[in-house]
Amino acid sequence: MSTITIEGVETQEVHDLLKGMNADHAQGYLYAKPLAYDDYLQYLNTQYNLKMLDSPF
User: Fold this and answer.
1) Three-class secondary structure assignment of 1-57
2) First to last CA, the chain
3) φ/ψ of residue 41, rounded to 5
C-alpha cells in the first residue's frame, strides 16, 4: 500500500484534478500560506491549544 502526497497545490482546478486522480493527500498555498515559525506556533496554540517550545533557531 502506498500513499501519494501532492505538493504545491495552488488552484482549485488542480485540487479537483488531483481529487479525480485519487491522490491521498495534498498541500500547498490553496490550503494555507507559508508561515514564519513564530506565526506557526501561534496558529497551533490558537487552533489546537498546543504549547510549543520557543524557536530552536
Assistant:
1) CCCCEEECCCCHHHHHHHHHCCCCEEECCCCCCCCCHHHHHHHHHHHHCCCCCCCCC
2) 37
3) -60, -40
The per-residue pLDDT for 49 is 76
**Beta strands 5-7; 25-27: pairing state:** parallel
Residue by residue, pLDDT tens for the chain (57 residues) are 678 788 999 999 999 999 999 888 999 999 988 899 889 888 888 888 766 666 665
Say what the pTM is: 0.59
| Residue that the C-alpha cell 484534478 belongs to | 17
Q: Which residues contact 55 (CB under 8 A, 6 or more apart)?
A: 37, 38, 41
Q: Round to whole Å and give the CA distance between 51 and 11.
A: 32
